[in-house]
Amino acid sequence: MNRILTRAIVTQFYKINTGFFLVLFLILFGLLNGKAMVEMHMYLMQEISADYRFLLAAMVIWLLYSIKCVLYVHKELRNPAGSYLYVLRSVADGRHLRLWSLCQFQLLLPVTIYTCLTAAVGYSSGHYLYPTLFLLYQTGLCIGAAFIYRDTINNVWRQVLPAMPGIMRGMRKPPYTFLLYYAVHMRKGTFIGLKLLSIILLQGMVAANQVEINKESVAILMMFLIAAHSLLPLYFMRHAETRLAFVRNMPLRDVSILLTVTFTYAVVFLPEITFLILNGRHALPPLVVAELYAVAVSQSMLYTMLHYIPRMNTDRYMLVVLSLFFATLLFLASFDLAPLLGVELLLSVILFVLFYRKYELPAASL
Amino acid sequence: MLVFQEYKKSYGKQDIISIGNLALESGIYWLRGENGTGKSTLMKSIAGLIPFKGNITVAGLNIRKQRREYTAVVNYAEAEPLLPGFLTGNDLISFYADAKNAPEGQVEHLCELLGVSNFAGNRIATYSSGMAKKLSLVLGFIGNPRLVLLDEPLITLDTASVEVLQRLINEYAQRGISFIVSSHQDVHPGSLVMKHLYIRNKTVEPE
Fold it and tell me: In terms of C-beta density within 10 A (0-12 exposed, 13-18 middle, 19 or more buried), how is residue A122 classed?
């Protein structure tokens, strides 16, 4: 039974979130050189073991990740294709909970490793209380989730988790907002998570540069945020080619479809740009903020159009996203964003013209 | 009305269906073939949903050269409609009505006939398969089509709706609108003559 849960839940979770983990890995371990990176993490681990504010911050981040896992499993259990898992109702309660605890342990493995390393660093430097609390907290997250899954299965007729409120429900929905509605209704976890990540990182940058905001660090951070948003183009394109496939049978101009995609990303990146306008107005000229905004939109459009290239799959897509990220850094070195913007827009249009009408979603994706 | 020129659809190296040159007159066609012979693939090609080699023309409009005009006159209702669950039926209906330039009062008439008005204000995610099918059929009739493609229109429909649908096909056909209907059940569009199209040996053979 554990093997089935691992294959059906854990493996799928890591497969689906490959992009998320790649970006996270890049942020945590790719920014600094080897020695500086080790020093930074040692510092973080020591602070988590000694300073309650760091401990609380880590607990909040762990909780967010745990919620992501719980929402994923909950969705799988509510999915008709996951109905076979309800056979677990016939398993003894203790074993049922053990199975889900083990499953949740595997889902939390990335943060568990960090927790254990933090505890080791804390204990070796003579701190016992906070590392122990951190370990207990991690165990609590694991067991708590197991109870939620068990209850979901045992009380199938009840809505165990409160449904997140549908944003903008009841309002009239013009067609050019369909992708946005999709993001805030069907991908609200991802969408809200991305916005939270953006605001936390941007706030962190402002806090770290209180005297003067460094233009280059803002630009690099924006590139990270655009890369972090690279999941959305994947979701948007799949949605457009399945549930919105009927659009291809509509007498719409191709330019309307391109403009809809542009409008979608223009709205998606509004929170980040609003933050920059409000917090960086002394250091960042309006033109630079406008250019960063345009790059965010054009790069996301390019990410979307990449999916229409024949034989593009998630792995290749993530490779291109990473390559584009590093290529973009070269442009940032000169801080001349205009050519980058032009190239990305042109490439997006070329890819759209070349491949959009010839695209057909592989049967396996349906 | 419908002309195929060197039409060919394949997946990788596997040929699904090829039609050399074929011209079909106006009328109601019952597209028949065993499971997996490519009925839905052919319909999706005609609707412009999937790419293919060759050319298709409907009422003199070329799918490649006059895509907008072409899609304005070719409507399609798929066998198992996959629609965005976060939208309401009304959202989709108004989108279709706008894009396909539906005449005044048409949408209300169709919704009333097929009983969609009762639930069109609810989110599609809450629909049963029969309700989604009815919505998909309403969408298939919206606008001023010259050709309506109905892929398995009778599945999951209740008996009353099947009769309504057959009356609707009859009503549209009398106005000169053509239909291609794929169905494993019998379709009886009133007194109108139904022509047969068979998919055999990876090609389409008219009756």
Answer: buried
A162 pLDDT band, cuts 50/70/90, is: very low
Cα B110–chain centre separation: 15
> What global pTM score does this model have?
0.67
Report the 10 Å Cβ neighbour count for A31. 12
Which A residues in the span 155-174 are in contact with B, Cβ-Cβ below 8 Å? Answer: 166, 172-173
> Could you read off the pLDDT of A298-325 as tens digits, one per residue?
999 999 999 999 888 877 888 888 888 8
- Tokens matching residue A162: 């409160």
ipTM value: 0.73
Q: For A78, left (φ over 0), alpha (ψ -120 to 50), or beta?
A: alpha
Work out the pLDDT band at B189, boundaries 50, 70, 90: low
Residue in A241, A249, A355 to test binding to B, most B beta-carbons within 10 Å: A249
Average pLDDT, chain B: 90
DSSP string, A34-52: HHHHHHHHHHHHHHHHH-H
The position carrying tokens 């629609």 is B83
Length of chain B: 207
Residue with tokens 């009840």: A158
For residue A71, count CB atoms less than 10 angstroms from its CB and return exposed for 0-12, middle for 13-18, buried for 19 or more.
Answer: middle
Read off the tokens for B131.
């309700």
Contact status of A255 with chain B (Cβ, < 8 Å): no
User: What does the pLDDT read at residue A263?
Assistant: 95
Total Cβ atoms within 10 A of residue B101: 12
| Residue A191 confidence (pLDDT) | 86
Q: Which residue of B has its CA nearest to A357?
A: B51
Determine which of A246, A311, A353, A356 to mutate to test the interface with B (most B C-beta atoms within 10 Å).
Answer: A246
Q: Which band of pLDDT confidence, cut at 50, 70 and 90, is reported for residue B199?
A: very high
Spell out the residues 6+ positions from residue A314 whose beta carbon is closer than 8 angstroms to its own.
Answer: A18, A19, A234
Nearest CA to B111 out of B101, B121, B99 is that of: B121
Closest-CA residue to A236 (of A190, A182, A287) = A182
What count of residues does chain A have? 366
Distance of residue A73 Cα from the nearest chain B Cα, in angstroms: 20
SS (H, E, C) chain B: CEEEEEEEEEECCEEEEEEEEEEECCCEEEEECCCCCCHHHHHHHHHCCCCCEEEEEECCEECCCCHHHHHHHEEEECCCCCCCCCCEHHHHHHHHHHHCCCCCCHHHHHHHHHCCCCCCCCEHHHCCHHHHHHHHHHHHHCCCCCEEEEECCCCCCCHHHHHHHHHHHHHHHHCCCEEEEECCCCCCCCCCCEEEEEEECCEEEEC
